[in-house]
Design goal:
Layout: H1 2-35, E1 40-45, H2 55-68, E2 70-75, H3 83-95, E3 100-103, E4 119-122, E5 131-133, H4 137-151, E6 157-161, H5 167-182, E7 187-191, H6 197-208, E8 212-215, H7 218-231, E9 236-240, H8 244-251, E10 257-261, H9 263-278, E11 290-294, H10 301-307
Parallel strand pairs: 1-2, 1-3, 3-4, 4-5, 6-7, 6-8, 8-9, 9-10
Antiparallel strand pairs: 10-11
């Protein structure tokens, strides 16, 4: 009898243990099935053809996506600032199942086709945007012009517009022009696509006699700095943005100064705002803080974080 009772006890214990093991394996899967929601499908559509200009912003986006359960899809244009191509991409992504989009508008005056889903814009506000992540472009243009005034030696200042349909870029230029003219500076202005900047810059400098050149977007800053370094131009160059290449030009004093903000933070906030918009939650994006950097400033600890962000 005792042996039989021991066998029954052993069998009972084994059954209990087996049941516990099965529940341990099955219950978490049931919990996940019941509670998890699919990730937010987020398309990022830039206005540039060179995605490396947004590498730091992409780092911020990827960190936010990992924390907020979003899946990112990045798209660039075959030709910079091609608003028609960008509109086609926006429509295609909306029809393709995206839940929300982050767009750097090629043409800020073109309403976003966003009836199907919300859109967050970067750099410029556009009609239909749920949220805009950008520095105060007018204040940025003013402070960059003030920096140029500190170096002014009496010659004309050449302002080059490479993205006239971008409200953000246009606001920077207009504010810089007003600041310079109010200080009594002769301002010369020109407009050309960013791809043509290098080919037209020599004639512009010859015609205007400019001693300083200002451009207002990262792509133009990189191209102008590369040309200046290659041919040995003496004019001072002021620009916008801090890609790794622009940081190197700053260090070598090819670029005199740039107005810069944290692209990493901009990317993070854009995705955070987009996820909130997709979930129909309110979200407020304050203007991004910015600073005007000269070459000697890049070694300061805070500016190192700005130039070379590190993800957690």
């Amino acid at each position: 009898m005792r042996q039989k009772r021991n066998v029954v006890i052993q069998l009972t214990i084994l059954v209990a243990l087996g049941t516990a093991v099965i529940l341990t394996l099955v219950l978490p899967q049931l919990t996940i099935t019941r509670t998890s929601t699919p990730p937010v499908e987020l398309s990022v559509i830039l206005r540039d053809s060179d995605s490396t200009l947004w590498s730091n912003a992409r780092l911020g986006m990827e960190q936010a996506a990992g924390e907020l359960r979003a899946e990112l899809r990045f798209l660039t244009l075959s030709s910079a600032n091609d608003s028609a191509e960008q509109a086609d991409l926006i429509a295609r992504e909306a029809e393709g199942g995206a839940d929300v989009m982050v767009v750097v508008p090629a043409d800020s005056g073109q309403p976003l086709a966003t009836e199907q889903l919300p859109v967050v814009t970067m750099e410029s506000w556009a009609e239909g945007a749920a949220v805009t992540v950008s520095p105060d472009n007018e204040a940025l243009g003013q402070e960059l012009a003030q920096c140029a005034l500190e170096d002014w030696a009496g010659s004309p200042v050449l302002l080059i517009q490479t993205a006239p349909a971008s409200a953000g870029v246009s606001q920077r230029l207009a504010a810089a022009r007003q600041t310079l003219e109010e200080a009594g500076v002769l301002v010369e202005a020109a407009e050309c696509p960013v791809e043509e900047l290098v080919s037209v810059l020599p004639d512009l400098l010859k015609q205007t006699g400019a001693g300083q050149v200002m451009v207002f977007e990262p792509a133009a800053t990189q191209r102008a700095a590369e040309y200046k370094e290659n041919v040995g131009l003496s004019q001072m160059l002021y620009g916008v943005g801090v890609t790794s290449r622009i940081a190197a030009y700053l260090e070598r004093e090819t670029v005199t100064a740039v107005a810069a903000w944290s692209d990493f933070a901009a990317g993070y906030l854009a995705v955070e705002g987009a996820v909130h918009a997709a979930q129909r939650k309110p979200y407020q994006a304050d203007p991004l803080p910015f600073t005007v950097l000269r070459g000697e400033d890049i070694y300061e600890p805070d500016n190192q974080k700005l130039l070379f962000p590190v993800t957690n």
